[in-house]
């Protein structure tokens, strides 16, 4: 059996949405547990949080944020962390210092507005040049490195969610499991604290006229968001596999190496 959803999550005081997205049935076996980690940013991590992360022996961190996000919210690392942090330089959002879900919300007032903004956002995520650059680095790392890795952005839900879903799809995880893992963002850890923190940031940047329901949509995930990203990929490239090959550099050889490292 795969890892129970609730046992995937590691409770942290200052890191939101920290969880293992391995353990699912995949093509030829099952994804190894303890190899594929995902989360939000670590800028507010406590010493206890950093001890928990260090115990996982994570050797590669993939930071999907833009340069200004990293500068404004420096991620904390354990004193003994000696791994590598990978990212493609530049901005992944069009507004410097903003997360991608924040750049879409200037005209959002209602939950329906928020849903449309998120659908529009997800059409763009697989094709943003800087984000694509980091996705490429991630796929290469999964092919070349056997050690555990951690994938994160600001909230660990959109840029991270698409990347994790791509890895799942390429390794043959069932669509139901892909969606279930994606939706786990809505309940992982202290979701209410994450929503509250995100709401403060959104309101500071875009005013207080936004409905509470709209804020909750922006700070959560819904299956149609991910479906829109994959549908756009298929419209432009014919298949997810062709997109991964042509845009992310996941050749058959790279995919075989990923499988060797991640499937048991």
TrEMBL record:
InterPro entries: Prot-tyrosine_phosphatase-like, Tyr/Ser_Pase_IphP-type, Tyr_Pase_AS. It holds the Pfam family Y_phosphatase3. SUPFAM superfamilies: (Phosphotyrosine protein) phosphatases II. The lineage of its organism: Bacteria, Pseudomonadati, Pseudomonadota, Alphaproteobacteria, Sphingomonadales. Belongs to the protein-tyrosine phosphatase family. This is Tyrosine-protein phosphatase. Signal peptide: none annotated.
